[in-house]
């Protein structure tokens, strides 16, 4: 899974470079109510846990979730052993199994030898799932009959890119929701955060414990907070990191994400100005001069896109047209991990000003904003494998099932967009609320869970001061909702606190 669609569909998550590559054949493991660990992917162990598909009818059908762990390096019978920590990488819907493979080594360095580091796939994730057996393996979210069909529906452009970009996105989302309904195998409605929180309790109990140890990022903060609100007495140690406002999420508003985005952008401008010519290709003595250079590139691209011809992974040339929209999206995507991307971004924008779009295109592919051209596999088993690409579908399924119904009234949708734009100049890269337009209606559980509690151990809330999508204000708010919780702030840009911990200390 190397080409996730991340920022532009609103995924709040670890980025592809942090995710591992899972090559394990999960069908080898029969799901069971006990955790039976099987060695997999060299340094890991895998298991599949049976869970009720529907917690309101637990004896009805079962489903299975995939787990992967890096076991503690102290013996489990030693006094140092401290049990499992569950991780969630965000999304919603991103695979915790992929995450733990990419993240376990740095987590181990930070946390020490005494914990099992456990990634699990949230409901909606597909990796363990065989198409013909949805209930035994599911629930799954996959709206497309094949990867080829998926490739026919292009990704939306930045919402201000042209006169029809907004309306085009509206239509695209209606279409996608209609596909979601048409392709539902009956399990779609059981994909939601409350059930995922219940799944987590099952995972903890299957470890022979009653209380959770958990670290969740971005959307993982909603999952963690929901768990804490549902099961306040089952909290051992719980960290939520990069905070979404649960009320904003559950009301499908997506209005409280962009309050600090401009701060992230300003760290780009200021960082470039102070980094000097050698470190920043867009260098000018002041931030406003650098802004002017970028504006000039935007201005040009708005009417004159630039062709890109480049070689991606192998020597096959790849062709694309880099336009205004792609630049907006690529910049926004870079905000998630400034330490890894800002220098490259400055250089790519500089190249654009010289008429060379290769580097920007390559960044957009690396960031998962555009997929490389779809090539039909010659081999049927690869076709089957391709069907498992569903990160975007998983995000839609969780977000739209969790959230209140979004009215399809066009002027209402537009008005909500204008409201978002009043909060940030980056609103055109944040179409997330539109994801749920026309989402299938089935009987929703209307009771709203109040995300507040006095937990059996105080929770830890972590926020960055210049986070592009999970602003500090949300950390302040959520921390107030949990008695005794502490708010730890880190003075840095980006949505991946971890990136800061393991990377250099300057974005340039
Ligand atoms: C822990 O288990 C191992 C393997 O079963 C055994 O050899 C060892 O003596 C045990 N240690 C303690 C402290 O019980
Ligand atoms: C465009 O930039 C790339 C580096 O990103 C370079 O390899 C390529 O030669 C440049 N193309 C032209 C036509 O200068
Ligand atoms: C088809 O693809 C599968 C999975 O990548 C591979 O194991 C198999 O060898 C391929 N078969 C042929 C005939 O290339
Ligand atoms: C995008 O459009 C919105 C709504 O009309 C407007 O408020 C905002 O300034 C525009 N932003 C950009 C970058 O064009
Ligand atoms: C939830 O609210 C909707 C709209 O008000 C209503 O149609 C539906 O029956 C309600 N669902 C339940 C489970 O009460």
From TrEMBL:
It comes from Favolaschia claudopus. This is Abhydrolase-4 domain-containing protein. GO terms for molecular function: hydrolase activity. It comes from the Eukaryota. Residues 433-496 form the Peptidase S33 tripeptidyl aminopeptidase-like C-terminal domain. The keyword Signal applies. InterPro entries: AB_hydrolase_1, AB_hydrolase_fold, Pept_S33_TAP-like_C, Serine_prot/Carboxylest_S33. Belongs to the peptidase S33 family. Residues 84-274 form the AB hydrolase-1 domain. Residues 1-20 form the signal peptide. Keywords: Hydrolase, Signal. Pfam families: Abhydrolase_1, Abhydrolase_4.
